[in-house]
Write a structure and sequence with these properties.
alpha+beta; Gyrase A, domain 2; Alpha-Beta Plaits; 5-stranded antiparallel β-sheet
Length: 163
């Protein structure tokens, strides 16, 4: 019997920020305290996680209740800059995997070299046929995907945890 737990999380706050990463990072640091993450990495501060997503995109993960306030403050900090700030919280679902074999379960679903991943690295990948992102969260792993395929993704994770 597996010791892996798969937990579907209540809605998380997720804000997509697109534009000049230097300017975005300064605004986010001013509002949340999160430092600028390097490529494919994340930083954390005050309950927020800033994730490098692409050469012109960050995702800020925070408490769902704080999204409107944080989005407004970042908008003010960037008011003279060209940037896109979008609350995508309702478009994504999140899962936590915990247990000594959680990484083994994930390796059944994603083409990721877990041994080569840095502690704060975020991987955008495919979980079976589902676009997903994953990172270490505490002693386990967090996986996010589009909410439209969240039931399928949860079934994938639970099946991988059982075998």
């Amino acid at each position: 019997m597996s010791d892996i737990s798969v937990t579907a999380l209540p809605p998380l706050g997720m804000i997509t920020l697109r534009g000049d990463l230097v300017l975005l990072a300064k605004a986010v640091a001013k509002v949340t305290g999160c430092a600028k993450p390097d490529q494919r990495l994340s930083t954390t501060s005050n309950g927020c996680r800033l994730i490098w997503m692409s050469p012109d995109e960050y995702m800020l993960v925070c408490d769902h209740i704080d999204v409107a306030d944080i989005t407004a403050k970042i908008s003010v900090a960037l008011q003279k800059e060209f940037a896109t700030i979008a609350d995508v919280s309702d478009a994504r679902a999140a899962f936590d995997l915990a247990g000594t074999e959680a990484q083994v379960a994930l390796s059944r679903l994603v083409p990721v070299d877990f041994a080569a991943m840095a502690p704060t690295e975020v991987r955008r990948t495919r979980m079976a046929q589902v676009p997903a992102a994953l990172w270490r969260e505490g002693q386990g792993w967090r996986v996010i995907c589009f909410r439209s395929v969240s039931r399928y993704a949860e079934d994938l994770l639970r099946n991988a945890a059982r075998t």
